[in-house]
Amino acid sequence: MAEPILSNNMEKAPTESNLSIISNDINIELNMEFLMELINNMYHGTYNEDVVEHIAKALKMVDLIYVSGADSHQLQMKVFPLSLGDDANEWWISDGDRKITT
Asked: Which domain of life is it from (predicted)?
């Protein structure tokens, strides 16, 4: 069974309306509005969803984030999994870090 999407490298920020992702000395803090937008546009892996459209939309959303000391690729890799639900999330978790190698 898949782990919850908000897994081991993520924790609630001091304020209940934000989420902090802490990894490699980079603290990415996402506000509730951004998180709700990710949830509203979550990809579940069903037959009627367009994966290419989802990826484009999710990456466009991540491009709106700026974190000092983090490049856009690091942000994409940390935030994108939050946009996956159900079967898509289970797939992401099951293959671990081997999915994206470049």
From this structure: Eukaryota
- Confidence at residue 24, expressed as pLDDT on a 0 to 100 scale: 62
Is residue 92's pLDDT more than 50?
Answer: yes
Contacts of 14 (CB under 8 A, 6+ apart): none
Question: Contact 23/9 with Cβ under 8 angstroms?
Answer: yes
Residue 17 has pLDDT above 80, yes or no: no
End-to-end CA distance of the chain: 28
64: buried, middle or exposed (CB in 10 Å: 19+, 13-18, 0-12)?
Answer: exposed
Q: Which residue has the higher pLDDT, 33 or 96?
A: 33
Strand 10-12 vs strand 26-31: parallel, antiparallel, or unpaired?
unpaired
Across the chain, where does the E strand assignment appear?
10-12, 18-23, 26-31
